[in-house]
């Protein structure tokens, strides 16, 4: 119990240190760390391909007919006749190939691709992805992938048992795709920049606009930024300024960020994350648990000497009930440090603290959003 309380106190104390010793002190971050450029978003690519060179761990062609059809089509394109006979080798697997095309990627650069089995292949370890075209949502081919597959999981099997660790039906091809087509980009032709906050918040959006305007007032003599809503900040480009250089100057400006008060609870793992701005009104909390223990201690009964009786077992059951906790504690958290200290003073496990937080929220004393995962 003491160890659990110490670990919980250490975790929450670390969160307090990261958020600052004084709750009123806001954290500062660079604009590039809290916002992204609207014109610089990622794009998803997808393709269908074959992996060859597997050691008998590929698709069974009878159970995965699309793998055989793909093999025949590929061989015919290479000028190899496939008429007659059916291959029973399990060294080929059909896979879906996915990749993320980064913004402003130029032809000739390489990106990583992920492969996932479509059929009944048991492992992709040791395979090679053959040339696969990757298309975007518009149907255009933007990259071509090929290369050796790296699989982190493994499977070891014997006659009586087998051991599997990780996922063996999915893998990765590092730098396996070459970009062949450039995305249509009008970054240089744009008249303004649109920044999108990763965590929408009106206070942070206005703070970003004010910081950019203070910088622009000194350098250009006029404000250029405006917060459209809680997520978007529009920045107008001065006529004599290069857009790329303007973005490079803006993204390194530091801004005081603000976040809403939240308590995130994961009941499966017992994880509790309390934000720095969480407040708890004065409330009385009592927490107690009832433990029931059933112990079976059967007694051996021996027959009398020189009798014709038989040895028997007489059942004996001991039931004990113990109720722990139950003390009433006053809990009030004007700041994170006081709140953590109050929760630790109650002396309960993380699952108990989760129940207490839910009860405080139901009572209306938790001045924060309670997020259950």
Give keywords:
373 residues, alpha+beta, Alpha-Beta Plaits, six-stranded antiparallel barrel, 7 helices, 23% helix, 38% strand, disordered N terminus, bacterial flagellum, periplasm, Flagellar P-ring protein, structural molecule activity
Tell me about this structure.
The protein is of the alpha+beta class and about 375 residues long. It has 3 domains: about 1-25 and about 260-370, no CATH class; about 45-180, no CATH class; about 185-255, 2-Layer Sandwich (Alpha-Beta Plaits), CATH 3.30.70. It has 7 helices and 22 strands. The strands form 7 sheets. A 6-stranded antiparallel barrel has the order 3-4-5-10-7-6. Strands 2-11-13-12 form a 4-stranded antiparallel β-sheet. Strand 8 and strand 9 form a beta hairpin. The two termini are about 25 Å apart.
Tally of DSSP β-strands: 22
Order of helices and strands: HEHEEHEEEEEEEEHEEHEEEEEEEHHEE
The helicity comes to 10-25%
Structural class: alpha+beta
User: End-to-end span in angstroms?
Assistant: 25 Å
Structurally, how many domains make up the residues?
3
- Counted by DSSP, the helix tally is 7
What oligomerization state is this entry in?
single chain
- Major beta-sheet overview: 6 strands, antiparallel, barrel
Question: Within the largest sheet, what's the order of strands?
Answer: 3-4-5-10-7-6
Poorly predicted ranges (pLDDT <50, ≥5 residues)?
Answer: 1-24
Strand content: 35-45%
Q: Gyration radius, to the nearest Å?
A: 32 Å
């Amino acid at each position: 119990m003491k160890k659990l309380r110490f670990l919980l106190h250490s975790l929450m104390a670390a969160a307090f240190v990261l958020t600052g010793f004084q709750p009123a002190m806001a954290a500062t971050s660079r604009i590039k760390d809290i916002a992204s450029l609207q014109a610089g978003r990622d794009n998803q690519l997808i393709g269908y391909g074959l992996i060859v060179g597997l050691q008998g761990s590929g698709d069974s062609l009878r159970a995965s007919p699309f793998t055989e059809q793909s093999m025949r089509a590929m061989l015919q394109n290479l000028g190899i006749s496939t008429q007659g006979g059916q291959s029973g080798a399990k060294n080929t697997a059909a896979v879906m190939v996915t990749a993320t095309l980064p913004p402003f990627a130029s032809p000739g650069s390489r990106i990583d691709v992920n492969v996932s089995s479509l059929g009944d292949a048991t492992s992709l370890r040791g395979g090679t992805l053959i040339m696969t075209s990757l298309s975007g949502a518009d149907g255009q081919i933007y990259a071509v992938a090929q290369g050796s597959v790296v699989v982190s999981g493994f499977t070891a099997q014997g006659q009586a048992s087998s051991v599997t660790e990780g996922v063996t039906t999915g893998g990765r091809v590092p730098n396996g795709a070459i970009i062949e087509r450039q995305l249509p980009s009008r970054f240089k032709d744009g008249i303004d920049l649109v920044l999108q906050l990763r965590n929408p918040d009106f206070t942070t959006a206005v703070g970003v606009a004010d910081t950019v305007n203070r910088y622009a007032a000194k350098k250009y003599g006029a404000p250029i930024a405006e917060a459209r809503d809680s997520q978007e900040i529009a920045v107008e480009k001065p006529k004599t300024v290069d857009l790329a250089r303007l973005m490079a100057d803006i993204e390194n400006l530091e801004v005081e960020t603000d976040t809403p008060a939240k308590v995130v609870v994961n009941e499966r793992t017992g994880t509790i994350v309390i934000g720095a701005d969480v407040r708890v009104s004065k409330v009385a909390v009592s927490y107690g648990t009832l433990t029931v223990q059933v112990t079976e201690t059967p007694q051996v009964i021996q027959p009398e000497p020189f009798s014709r009786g038989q040895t028997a077992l007489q059942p004996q059951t001991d039931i004990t009930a113990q109720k722990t906790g139950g003390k009433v504690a006053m809990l009030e958290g004007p700041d994170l440090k006081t709140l953590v200290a109050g929760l630790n003073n109650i002396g309960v496990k993380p699952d108990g603290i989760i129940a207490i937080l839910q009860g405080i929220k139901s009572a209306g004393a938790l001045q924060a959003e309670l997020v259950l995962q």
